[in-house]
Amino acid sequence: MESKATTKLNVNGDKILESAMTDDALKIDNRLLKLKRLDVLGLSRFERLRWMYLMRVQHIEINRIMSDLRELLKPDIDVNIISIIGMTGAGKTTLANGLRTNLKEAVFGAVPRCEQPVLLVKAPANGDKSFSWKSLYHRILVEAEEPLPDAKRSVLMDAGHMVISLNARTGLDPLRLAIESMLKNRNVKVLIIDEVLHLLRFGNYSAVMDTLKSLADSHLTKLILVGAYNLSELMQDYGQVAKRSEILHYRRYHIDVDEDKAEFLRVLKVLQSLWPCREVPDLSIVGDLLMKANLGCIGLLKGSLMRLASLQMESKNEKFSSVLLKKAVKSKKLLSVIEAEVLAGEAELVGATYGESMFADEAQQAILKTLDTSVRCET
Amino acid sequence: MKTTLLYGFAPQGVGTGQVEHLQSHLLSLAYEHCLSAKKMVDRVLHPLHRNHSHRVNTTYGWSTSHGRFMLGIDNRTEDWICAMEYATGRTDLTNSTLFPLGNVINGEHLLSGTLQHCHLCFQSDIDCGKRPYRRLLWQVKHVQCCPIHHIGLVESTCGAFANDRVTPSRRVNLGGVCPGCGSIGYKCLPIVDLTASTSQIWTSVQIQDALAHLSLIANADLTSVKASISSYAKNSDSLNQIALQAGISKSALWRWIHFPKAKMSLGHSLKVAAATGISLVGFLTGDLMRADIVVEIDIERARKRHKEVNLGDLHKRLQQAIETPTTLKKVADEFEVSTEFVRRHFPELAAEMIKLFADVKSEDLWTVRKKVFQEVESVLLTLCSQNQPLTIRNAGLVSGVIWFPTSLQARIFNELRTALGWKTLGNPETLEFGPPMKFRINNSKQRLRNATEQAKGEL
């Protein structure tokens, strides 16, 4: 049985780990990003864990998503709503944050200071019984650095006259008008909404999607919705949305596939090189087990390794022990629940994602090969 | 890089003479941000002066005086421009004010006291699907008509009945919208097409052109502008003629030319440009070769010569003037034209007249001088015979008229008395005679010596 002191230490350790793994920007982040591993080893526990969290590892799946997004975000492609669907803990929020930076630089390049081509906002979960559009709109305005988001007012235009609306500052109208004006004047090309599940939690999918679609149509802004597998049902069933939308599946790596296994073990090695303690365990020995224990998901793997590092930091002289591994990964029961959800979600998405058209079937490959050889150049 | 505080869209009509003025642009920004203009100014623009190093001191004057502080040429306008350029990330907002004109003109009587607009311009904005906006041109005091539609500007007041007006809490503050009733394009005002005079049209066209070239005017060198006008004046009419034709005082024009830092008002600049036939932009930049703008109507310039001159009569008078030598200026004054006008239309006659009068003048002059010599010689001989000192005072006593030291008589007297042994210096250098006079003086000295010797011989 653990002593009270050990329990207290563990609780403290969990708090440090939790605060180090926050998605909110912290003041120390800029300083930490410039440091190498050897510089970090002398810092406090919180700073070392935060540094490890900030380190991003590129892998094949992220590169594939980015490549697909670049194709779908071209202005002449008639796709207005893109959903990025993945399992819980896969790293979707990390991906969304990365998208904001990468899209700005890679897709849109240098833009005037008055423009904001990419906006990222997290759908709020404020504990109400119904979803609050006002909260979402307010967050969008804050993210766009819109001045005085609480002081917006609406103007009515009727028969050649302009007057301030009677309920100028209440209701959704002022915020909605402000967002439409902001999308136009800031030339927003992409609006990323993370945790879309919070929009859909209370049913009435059609109303939610209609509203989101009209928001996208107001200034030809493309929406990227980031969420878990329960989003896929909505994207496929709602016809109006299905017409001009695509689904990108943020997949996990499968242990049965050799390329996936190799990539997973490569990422493990990279994460190991970022170990925030002086004593570095050789985790490649248990690489296969770690892949099974994390369902082949890079996000879960990183979470497990961070927990392992935190536990190592709590041990005497920060000594590594294989016992710590038992506590670092998720329990078997929890893992089975997640796995069941993942399997159901993956089954749902078969044939539904971008690139999985009828031409992707093996049966059609022979015809496609014939098409390739039949291409002729006209002089 | 941090995003700008406010949207960075351009003022309407930027780069043309129909550019939107800064206050209208500020109101458009507030409208796009779905904020009241007052809140945007109080809580976004005003705090800038606390947080940033550049001098920003926005006052509440933006709403009173119709935003005059935002459109003029003084420091307050510069502060507004700095604040709004910082907030929007734009670098061309200075061309939405008259600030660039401050380089070459002073701010006297520059801005109009009331808001005015052209209802046809508002209508054409609406027809193009744009929100009607206020032009900077309309706020310049001398602009009384629209240069495009050639109709008079109307004062922007609400023409709606009391029942149709909007309560103050619901009024929209936007450039082309009536604040009283919310009518877009001031449709509440009855349409009255006030025909503009040709001179009004010419003035508004000139100012519109100047607003389209504000960056050129901002970079003009005032010294070289004055030098250009000065050399122009030397080549054609004198400065006085230009001032006369422009209807401004000669001293004002002279002062402007000769004092390096002196600046003319826009009104005077227009008058001088009109008088000299140069476009306003050409005058303000010193580019005298710049052709005046072609306007598709007859333009009567504001020149001093108002009368139509019958050239046939003038020709006859010039021929008469040759026979009885009369100066060219006298003939020109009779017909109320300038000598330049006469020279332009009848160059040969004018040249002949000038030469003829010069000969006549010189012949008269020598007759007069001959008499002076005779008088002085007579006075000297009288003084010698009376054994009186050969002073100018005694000479005056003899002649009965006081001779002033710089008069011709006194100067010739100074020269001649040395021939009679008077031991004083002659005339000072500034009063020295030229060779023809010296020749006559020497002859006169010789005559005096001969006369005195003869007188001594007789004694």
Describe the model.
The complex is a heterodimer of chains A (379) and B (459). By secondary structure, chain A is of the alpha/beta class. Chain A has helices spanning 4-20, 29-33, 37-40, 45-54, 60-72, 92-108, 133-143, 173-185, 197-200, 205-218, 230-237, 239-243, 258-273, 287-293, 298-314, 323-328, 332-348, 365-374; strands at 81-86, 118-122, 155-158, 161-164, 190-194, 222-227, 245-250. In chain A, the strands form 2 sheets. A 5-stranded parallel β-sheet of chain A has the order 2-5-6-1-7, with helices on both faces. In chain A, strand 3 and strand 4 (161-164) form a beta hairpin. In chain A, helix 1 packs across helix 15 (298-314) and helix 7 runs parallel beside helix 8 (173-185). The model of chain A has no long low-confidence stretch (mean pLDDT 84). Chain B is an all-alpha fold and 459 residues long. Chain B has helices spanning 22-32, 37-45, 48-51, 68-71, 75-88, 119-127, 198-212, 214-218, 222-235, 239-246, 250-258, 266-276, 280-285, 311-323, 328-334, 339-345, 347-385, 392-399, 408-417, 435-458; strands spanning 116-117, 154-155. Chain B has a two-stranded antiparallel ribbon with strand order 1-2. In chain B, helix 10 packs across helix 12 and helix 16 (339-345) crosses helix 17. Chain B is elongated. The N and C termini of chain B lie far apart (114 Å). The model of chain B is unreliable at 53-62 and 294-307 (pLDDT under 50).
Provide a quick synopsis of the model.
The complex is a heterodimer of chains A (379) and B (459). With 379 residues, chain A is an alpha/beta fold. Chain A is 51% helix and 9% strand.
Separate helix tally of chain B: 20
Which strand-content bin applies to the residues of chain B?
Answer: under 5%
The shape of chain B is: elongated
Rg of chain B over CA atoms, rounded to whole Å, is 35 Å
Q: What is the subunit arrangement here? A: heterodimer
Distance between the termini of chain A: 83 Å
DSSP strand count of chain B: 2
* Low-pLDDT segments, ≥5 res of chain A: none
Largest interface: A-B, 28 and 35 residues
Q: What general outline of chain A do the C-alpha atoms trace? A: globular
User: Could you give the order of the helices and strands of chain A?
Assistant: HHHHHEHEHEEHEHHEHHEHHHHHH
State the share of residues found in helices of chain B, binned by percent.
Answer: 40-55%
Structural class of chain A: alpha/beta
